[in-house]
Amino acid sequence: MSSGPAPGARGGSAFTLALLLGATTAFGFVGGLAEFVGPAVGAGGVVASAWLRRRYGLAAPTATLVPAVAALGVLAVSAAPVTSAELLGGLAALALLLWIADDPSRPAGGGRRAFRAIAACAASLGIAFGLFLALPALPPAVGVAGGLLAFVLLFLAVLLERFPRTTRDGGASA
Amino acid sequence: MSASSIEPGPLRWNRRSYLLLGAGAVLAAVAVPLRSPVPLFVALPLLFAPFASALGTARTVRADLAWQAGGLGAEVRIDGTVLGPFRGEANDLVVEARTPPGAQLSRPLELDRTPERIRFRLAWRFREPTLTFADAPTVVWRDPIGLCERTLGGERPSLPLERYPPEVHRLVVARLDRTIPLAGETRARRIGPSGEFFGLRDALPGEPRGRINWTASARAGRMLANDYQMEQTGDVLLLLDVRPTSRDRSIDERLLAIARAGAFGIAEALLRSKVRLGYASFGEFLETVPLSSGRAHRVRVLEAIAASQLGPVAGPAERCAHSMRRYFRPGVTTVVVSSWSDDPIDDLVPYLRRQGFGPLLVSPSPLPLLRKGDQSADDDERLARRLEELERRERLSENWRFAPVVDWDDYWSLGGLVRLLRGPTTRRRT
Description:
The structure holds two protein chains of two kinds. By secondary structure, chain A is an all-alpha fold.
């Protein structure tokens, strides 16, 4: 199995980039910024991050994320509190995680290997959003708290599954 | 290669994690005054991602590493292997190699991953002769998103890297003085009637019967005799000057690194030819390894050379010469490797001469280190450099009253020293 970036794949896979671009652009459309400004901000941040990753991805991997995260933050803060914006905001954040996992400086298939971690985040987001939709009278913080609780339970379950339980008795054989 | 084992490191988040956590925290905080749930839903995956990454903590916690150096001249090619099994995590393991001081990366790290092992290759290029120990690369597990990481434990042997002028290998046939038990000049290697088998030659009239190779003679149809290679030892003392000078400390450090590499090459070549070799380094005080030969002594000397560091204070040259008399007999051929400051009072050679030693000064020149580069040199600068060289040569030549001097300004060549030691006029007995 060969490693390292595939030739011509310095920017990561086109699929994750397109997914992130689509999610942030859609989030920009439903956000609170003026027409075309929101999509431009979202797409601009993603394109800037992709360009930085292609140019300086090996030297400063963290800095390449800043434009995309900043764009997402601007769109989130300016968005009107409507259901579509809430859903698209969460999906854009998940798409960002998938794009981060698809790092071209590492062996290909980062997105696939990161499936479990991203699925855990998606499950928490789903629970939070479901609670928010099911109980509209409650403030959204309750939904977020529910998601947080679900995530903590998931975390504990994985920890218990991962580390072997020790027994105190000596286990003497007959 | 000295073996050392390290324990697995703790799981830690990297900067990406803190960026996502910070962004998520800011969005969550902003959501409260805005009374908007949108920042909260965007913040949720960003806040959870570092924890979710930690869920997939490495199953592989130990992986032994083996590596070796190859290449010729200034180029050092590194070839190594990280041994698994990796439990399906080979693609999440990263090998990080640190370039040793004085080296430049000439071929970037290449990894070849299989489920059982990770093979890595890279190359460094040293600007100057070097004797150093390269730290073993670290093997890091990094989660698939790249938010948290953990250093794997296992065997991490450091790798000795030595690059010195190749000409010093010609010292194996140097003529050397024996100080004890029988004084006199002798070749380190000689073809003669005893020793180890060297080859066949036509027998001379009156050849002793014991030297005739009867089997070979019968096969060839003429009388053939055996030649043997006899190895005889001479004595050499290597004295490394580790005193600081008035120059910039970084220049002193680099000059000492070059001197150390040169001393290493000389010691290795001479010890290989069964020469009795002693080693001394003089900073503020003298530290010595007595004259001896053999494999164990080779390791002892090479470790002492590698451990020699620039001293904090310069001791007086007279102290060095007096101390030398306490540890070594006078008359021994003494190769002084010293960057030689301009102040005559710091010069070791006259004092050693007065104490009865036969010194030979090898002086790495600081001038190539002080130059910025040949490409940018205009006529005036070239003239200034030439004047500097002539001035240094003029000052060094004053030492010829006491001992032969080798101006070591081309760091990848020690031809001057080889010619001096191999030549017939090497006798410097007092």
